[in-house]
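Tokenise the fold.
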Amino acid sequence: MNWIYWALLSAFFAGITAILAKIGVAGVNSHLATAIRTVVVLIFTWAIALSIVPWSDLAQVTRRSYLFLLLSGLATGLSWLCYFRALQLGEASRVAPVDKLSVVFAIVLAAVFLRERLTWQHLAGGALIVSGALLLAWKPAT
């Protein structure tokens, strides 16, 4: 399978995650709920990695990779804490689209830090994502 299939599976599971998390945070402190979820992710991913990747590969990871993976993990943790709190306070059908504005942030950050070239597709797609997130999150005054 190429990257598009993996990305679609990621999106599918992220969609399921929003619904399961919304149900799971009911009556639970959002930070505690995030911690519980994180333990599950930790055990699950290590089990998969250790069953597929040879132990010797762990020694091949550079300090630079460790640093950026650590920073990525911190960013993920902060994202999850914020996401679970947002789910606790708002409707999943409104929170999830706003969370997907991460795509727009990733496009901009990739251009700034990775020097990826922005095309008209990035700009148009990013504008559509922002428009869609605003449309879905907006709730008319009653």
Notes: The radius of gyration is 18 Å. The chain has a mean pLDDT of 93.
